[in-house]
Amino acid sequence: MLRKGCWRLQARLCFLYRSVQVSKSGHRKLVSCIDPSMGLNEEQKEFQKVAFNFAAQEMAPNMAEWDQKELFPVEMMQKAAQLGFGGVYVRTDVGGSGLSRLDTSIIFEALATGCTSTTAYISIHNMCVWMIDTFGNEEQRHKFCPPLCTMTKFASYCLTEPESGSDAASLLTSAKRQGDHYILNGSKAFISGGGESDIYVVMCRTGGPGPKGISCIIVEKGTPGLSFGKKEKKVGWNSQPTRAVIFEDCAVPVANRIGNEGQGFLIAMKGLNGGRINVASCSLGAAHASLVLTRDYLNARKQFGVPLASNQICNQALQMHGGYGYLKDYAVQQYVRDSRVHQILEGSNEVMRMLISRNLLQM
């Protein structure tokens, strides 16, 4: 699915950059930014339209306030869940929408035009629900997935630690079994939704060193021994809180383990395979919105008596806004800030290049 998704994203990028043409007078000028429905079937066009409309009506008007006041827009996300966006690629018997990864990419790209930061959190939430739906047993699926799909409860993905980022297999958070419980000790860093989420999908060490010693355990908010660090101050992604998640003799039922002992790293990586496509789709949505804003700005703003669009080619949206692009009154700067972290999380650009090259060598 990752490879298929990458081809899809590459095609979308081609559409994004097909935004200039040469006029009869020889000047390059902006034309229609993109046709986001190109190549989609009728059903996909319909839920893309729903996502675009929701982004325009419920997200874009509030994006700046959520960013400036660092608000976690719970009510808006619960409205999104009513449209099926709380468990987009989760099976329908536990409340999911049962859509494909391609369908999910289309939806998140559209939603991100309204608020990239919030859509990125929704994508992480979806990744967590999918992991439980795919690797959990029937009791776990029916216990945890329905309230997550309606977003009456929220989920966070807990892999990264202060000393293990890209080298996730070296994580140190331990889970020692005592009877019918695991006792967790350690901490997770940079956790989206930390402190606000109800469900924490935690990768922890139940065995020896390396990836085969890692298991996946659900920790519910309110469990004794679970606490959170201070809310991080970030450049972007301000509509979702980021905190450390801390475990101090935190007792969690063995029944909350997803999959078998030692299967956690596989589960984490399978989740990230989809999460990486989701975040890339959010980046495309930010690019789409930025190009539209820049097109409108260049057509309206004049220098030397003519629209700026007559003098420039649009390849860096904020740069084309000039000094105004650096002001918080203009939305383009927020798209830049909210999408910058996408080069780091879910696997840094450097790690992703390594994975792509490794895959190519195996073909």
Automatic annotation (TrEMBL):
Q: Where is the Acyl-CoA dehydrogenase/oxidase C-terminal domain?
A: 311-361
Gene3D superfamilies the UniProt entry points to: Acyl-CoA dehydrogenase/oxidase, N-terminal domain (1.10.540.10), Butyryl-CoA Dehydrogenase, subunit A, domain 2 (2.40.110.10), Butyryl-CoA Dehydrogenase, subunit A, domain 3 (1.20.140.10)
Q: Which UniProt keywords apply?
A: Acetylation, FAD, Flavoprotein, Oxidoreductase, Transit peptide
- One Pfam match: Acyl-CoA_dh_N
Describe the family membership recorded for this protein in Swiss-Prot or TrEMBL.
Belongs to the acyl-CoA dehydrogenase family.
Q: Name one GO cellular component term.
A: mitochondrion
Source organism phylogeny: Eukaryota, Metazoa, Chordata, Craniata, Vertebrata
Which cofactors are required for activity?
Answer: FAD
Q: Please identify the protein, giving its name as recorded.
A: Acyl-CoA dehydrogenase family member 8
- Alphabetized InterPro entries for the sequence: Acyl-CoA_DH_CS (IPR006089), Acyl-CoA_Oxase/DH_mid-dom (IPR006091), Acyl-CoA_Oxase/DH_mid-dom_sf (IPR046373), AcylCo_DH-like_C (IPR036250), AcylCo_DH/oxidase_C (IPR009075), AcylCoA_DH/ox_N (IPR013786), AcylCoA_DH/ox_N_sf (IPR037069), AcylCoA_DH/oxidase_NM_dom_sf (IPR009100)
Q: Which residues form the Acyl-CoA oxidase/dehydrogenase middle domain?
A: 157-250
Q: Which residues are in the Acyl-CoA dehydrogenase/oxidase N-terminal domain? A: 41-151
Which spans of this chain does the record mark as coiled coil?
Answer: none
The Gene Ontology terms for molecular function here are: acyl-CoA dehydrogenase activity; flavin adenine dinucleotide binding
